[in-house]
Model the fold of this input.
Amino acid sequence: MDIQKFVDNSLGQWRSQRSAHHLTFRHFEAVESLIDIVALSPDDAAVIDLCNSYNIDPAQAVNPFQMTWEGHSDWDENAEIKGSCILVPIPDPTVHNRGKLLRDQGYAETIPAAGDYHFTDDGTFVLLTSYDNAAAEEKIWFANPNLRFRVSLIKTSQGSGVVTASFSSEIRSLSGK
Done:
């Protein structure tokens, strides 16, 4: 697996079921979402702006994409869970299957973020991101082309304690194909 194949495999609409354990609050949460992942052109203004904000040459960007989501939680049924994020992979030219993933909005904190990604020998995508007040570790792998799994850990900023742990199963929508 490499970043181009991973992004290509991820494009489309996904139905996601996430189970989260918020250790700080001693609370379990179930979240159902629709996630849309669409390719962006490397010369898209938002891609160029994001690269420039990290002083990275936009020509290094590979398979930029946008992810939007909308869902609901059993924790607060009135809360609106929706958002959008631009993601720009920047492969490391010297180390195979490693690089940076730029985001205009992070996962653990809603601020721009740059994480370090790599792929394990079995093709699992691993993303490690440090934020101002937290750190996130995400792992995504495909069971088959239309089923993927995601595990996320939100840790304290020092990485010494887990605040939230979640597991998601995501099924690609095949309607219209």
In short: The radius of gyration is 16 Å.
